[in-house]
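To fix ideas, we give here one paired sequence and structure record:
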Amino acid sequence: MKMNGSADVLRLKGQLRIQIPGEPSAPVRHALRMLVRDVEAVLGDSPLLVTGTKERSDLQIRYATALDEGVQRQESYAFYFHPEDSKGRMSIAGYDDLGLVYGILEFSRRFLGIEPFWFWADQPIARREEIEIPCEAYHSPTPKVRFRGWFVNDEVCLIGWKESYPPGRGVWEPVFEALLRCGGNMVIPGTDLPRGGVHYEVAAEMGLWLTHHHAEPLGAEMFLRAYPGKQASYLKHPELFEALWAEAIEQQKDKKVVWVLSFRGQGDQPFWELDPYFDTAEKRGAMIAQVIRKQYDMIRNAVQNPVCSVALYGEIAELYKGGYIKLPDDVIKVWADNGYGKMVSRRHGNLNQRVSSLPEAHDLGPHGIYYHVTFHDLQASNHLTMYPGPAAFLKQEVEAAFESGADEYVLLNCGNIRPHVYTLDIIRELWSAGSINVNGHLRQFVAYYYSDHHEDLAALYRSYADVAIVYGTHNDDLAGDEYYHHPARKIIGHWLTGKGDQPLSQLEWAVGEVPFSEQVSRFGEKLASGVKTWRTWLDHCDETISKLGPEDKQRAQDHLRFHGAIHLSGCEGFYWLCCSYNAYRKEQYPQAFVHASESLWSYQKGLDVLRQSEHGTWKHFYRADWLTNMENTIYNVDTLRRYLRMHGDSPDFFLWYKAYLMPETEKYIYLENTHREPLSDDDLGLRLKDHFGEKEMNEASAECSI
């Protein structure tokens, strides 16, 4: 076979002519929009879209027919080549809308080099004079997982990125495009966003199945929003709950929906916390089973062959495992990890039972998983930074879930996308192929998004997972960015409200039920080690970055160094806070003030890292950092520093200057009415640090982790 004078190769250049279906559906129109943009970016000329079978074309996009034997299942597609045409032609045949979408995007990936996270990872798009396509027919493989999707959760960066609220198409289209390029077909588009937003509309337009948060069964309005002032009790108001469910079904019945059956309390809490009648597992399980059966029957009366799921999350999983909840046989039972990637029950405060969260051999019917590569729990989770564990751990947990039969459904908590592209890409490979070679995948990932020094960069991705603080006894007890902020703010609150040395119960999960001073010291020990290891990792990172070209350098700073710098700044800030408390207990108030200043300056470096990463497209991307909330931590530490200055420098805020900084020749003869303006907190902290000297301050800080 020869095409354009070359054996078995189709060469395309200039303005391409692309034949498309006469009246493309909304999902196909979106995919064509992406294809036109991609072709123009690579070849420099916008392609011409034509309809009609008699039109000459370089590329044909069509629905499969009965003659296309390899394209007879949902979402499948194939590439075919037609040498009989004068210039040669390629066709993409899709079984259905998503088949065409995936086929178009796979063409873009294979032959134009546009990777799934090209937008979010700032992939450079190389211009070419022509593209060469090997003339080898290709049939899409069957994905391991039937329903594959993202929960766009804790999405404060996406919310704050643009001025409009709720986020508009300019935010959602790149999110859903990345999901489709990953082979995903299902989404929860955001968390409790106003119903007037376009998030559900755009997701449906782009061909995705819609599904729901487990606290919003069927996607219905929250009871207390619809009926403010009434008690949210199904026992008392079944007709009101059912009216909300019926309304939700009516609004979505013509869309592709994976219906979530559930019954939790308002605000994502167990319903019995507001209803004392349900005081036994039997009563609670019976009510949940009754409600789920009612929801199930309502959907089946309105929708033909509906797909339904139940999130076995938190207390519902415990009741199901205890035999208190009976579910319809065809409902997908969705098991959840603990937020840190381990398929066990999540930690609630200090309670961490770690009960297996996987189906057992007798659990018949379809199963799936809800999985996190990012989490927000006010304790130690990673929200702004990459998942801190190794790829091999993610492989172990997800592949084990598949082996247990939980392979019908994967819902992945994807957070704000941009900080998590590497781990999202790992799950893309897993839900597509069912397994992953983590080293081979990493080599490919680095090669796709960087142009040079691939081995050095891969080594940084691997070693990143070796540096995280291990705060507990389990291999998933790894500190994310929230570890440096939420516990630190709790310590400051306990300290400044005069609770003394009584244990702070909110910290027991990390450091045990010991006196408060010991809790702080135990944090200090972990943090002292973390400061050293994160500094070393950042040194290696900077060494590699110095070798890179300008584009790769910026990318490595945003997608590698960014994460280490956030960890180091938080680790140092929290460490100096512990040192400050230790000095305070010894009534070394000026030294405690200096340590608090060091803490504030360290935390400020983290905020500076966020601001420095907000360039170009990403301007303001992190301005809504309301969950890790570095600004809140800085505010807390600044409050602490002001409090410490009251211990000996008050009321005129001149006494420490006089005691430690004023020249001896002036100390005893200055006049009250002529002494200089009091130093600012920053100036005083810097000058006292110099006065005490590095040796004295280091000796004092060493004691904070003993």
Notes: The two ends are 76 Å apart (CA to CA). Residues 1-6 have pLDDT under 50 and may be disordered. The longest strand covers residues 77-82. Residues 550-585 form the longest helix (36 residues).
